[in-house]
Amino acid sequence: MALRTAPRVRSDAVPLRAFRSKGRPSAIAGVGTYAPDRVMTNADLAKIVETSDEWIVERTGIRRRHLAEPGTTTFELATRAAREALQNAEVSAEELDLIVVATSSPDGPFPSVACRVQNELGVPGACAFDVLAACTGFVYGLSLADAFIASGRADTVLVIGAEVLSRMLDWQDRATSIIFGDGAGAAVVRAARRGAGFRAWCLGSDGRGYDKVTAGDIPRGAYAAHQAQPLIAQKGPDVFKFATDIFIRQAYAVADAAGAAIEDIDLFVPHQANRRIIEAAARRVGLPMERVQVNLDEYGNTSTASIPLALGDALKSNRIKSGDQVLLAGFGSGLTWGACLLEWE
Ligand code: COA
C-alpha cells in the first residue's frame, strides 16, 4: 500500500534542510542534451569482465551506455549540450551572465570546464565556474542559478552537467564498469515569466560518507613523477541503501517546503543510478512509475548529466506540459543530495 505520510526517520539519520525559493522566481527556459554515438552493450562488457547481460539488467536496469571516443574532452560534450539548450530556450550565448558546469570528470584540476565552454561559445565576460558535488552537481548548479537570479546577480544562467567517466573506470572492476556512461545535459535558467518555476529545494551533504564513492587521490608527494589515473570505486550496497532512503526523505521534504503533496507531482526525474533504487523510492512515496522518468537502460549512470539527460528525454517525448509539477532529485559521492520541485513554465 502506498505510503502518503512522511516516513519515520531513524534517530541517527542526518537531518534534511528544505526551503522554499525566495525573491525573484526563476524557471528552466530550455534543455539540451548530448550523448556520444559509440554504444557499449552489456554483451560487449561481458567480453571484458565477468558479468552477463541478465545480471546487469536484473540488478540495475542498464542495457547500454554511450561512451566518448578516446581523446574526447568533457568540455566538448558540455558545449554540444549547451548549444542545444540555448537554441531550445531561444537565448543567445551573449545574454549569459553565469555559466556553471557540474562535473565529476573535469578535463583537469584547472581551468574550469565552464571557462572552456565559455571560450567555445565565444562569450567572454560572464562569470564561469565548476561545481563539484558528484552526481548531485546538476541540482546544486540549478540552485545556484535560482539563487543568483533571485538576488538580482544574474538574469540568464547556463547550467551544464557533463561527463567523460569512461576514462576514470577500471574496466576490470565489475562493481563500477557496468554502471557508468558518458554524456551531457544543459539547462538555461531565466527569471520566470509568470511566477512559475522553482518552488522549493532540499540540499545537503554528509561528509561521514566520504569513502562510499571515490575517484582516487592526486598523489601527495611534491614530485610525483607518475600521476595515477583516478579510478572510480564504490561501496555499492551502502550507496544503494543511502540512495533509496534519501530519495524518499527528499521527496517529502521538498514537497512539504513547497506546500505541496506527493500526489501533486506530475513527473519525478531522479538521478539515473539503478532502476531498483528508483522503483523502491517511487513505491515508498506512492508515485506510480508512469510518473517517473527512467532512461538509464540507454545511458547507464552519467553522474551530473543524468538528470538533464532524463529531463531532456521527458521533454522530447512530451511528458511535461506547462503547469506540471516536476520533482528533480539526485544523490552522489560526498555523500551529497539535492532535490527541487518546480512548476514548468
Ligand atoms: N556481474 C555479475 N555478478 C556481479 C556483478 C556483476 N557486474 N557485480 C557483483 N556481482 C555479484 C557479487 O560478486 C555478489 O556475488 P556473491 O553473492 O556470490 O558474493 C552478488 O553479485 C551480489 O553483489 P552485490 O554487490 O551485493 O550486488 P548488488 O545487488 O548490491 O548490486 C550494484 C551491485 C553496484 C549494482 C548495486 O549495489 C548498486 O547499484 N548500488 C548503488 C551504486 C550507485 O548508485 N552508485 C552511484 C552513486 S552516484
From TrEMBL:
Main location per the UniProt record: cytoplasm
InterPro entries, alphabetized: ACP_syn_III_C (IPR013747), ACP_syn_III_N (IPR013751), FabH (IPR004655), Thiolase-like (IPR016039)
Functional pathway: Lipid metabolism; fatty acid biosynthesis
Catalytic reaction(s) noted: 3-methylbutanoyl-CoA + malonyl-[ACP] + H(+) = 5-methyl-3-oxohexanoyl-[ACP] + CO2 + CoA; 2-methylpropanoyl-CoA + malonyl-[ACP] + H(+) = 4-methyl-3-oxopentanoyl-[ACP] + CO2 + CoA; (2S)-2-methylbutanoyl-CoA + malonyl-[ACP] + H(+) = (4S)-4-methyl-3-oxohexanoyl-[ACP] + CO2 + CoA; malonyl-[ACP] + acetyl-CoA + H(+) = 3-oxobutanoyl-[ACP] + CO2 + CoA
SUPFAM superfamilies the record matches: Thiolase-like (SSF53901)
Domain Beta-ketoacyl-[acyl-carrier-protein] synthase III C-terminal: 256-344
Superkingdom: Bacteria
Active-site residue list: C135, H271, N301
EC number(s) from the headed UniProt entry: 2.3.1.180
Cellular component terms per the entry's GO annotation: cytoplasm
Region called ACP-binding, residue ranges: 272-276
GO molecular function list: 3-oxoacyl-[acyl-carrier-protein] synthase activity; beta-ketoacyl-acyl-carrier-protein synthase III activity
Known function: Catalyzes the condensation reaction of fatty acid synthesis by the addition to an acyl acceptor of two carbons from malonyl-ACP. Catalyzes the first condensation reaction which initiates fatty acid synthesis and may therefore play a role in governing the total rate of fatty acid production. Possesses both acetoacetyl-ACP synthase and acetyl transacylase activities. Its substrate specificity determines the biosynthesis of branched-chain and/or straight-chain of fatty acids.
Assembly with partners or alone: Homodimer.
Domain-level remarks: The last Arg residue of the ACP-binding site is essential for the weak association between ACP/AcpP and FabH.
Name the record gives this protein: Beta-ketoacyl-[acyl-carrier-protein] synthase III
Organism: Candidatus Dormiibacter inghamiae
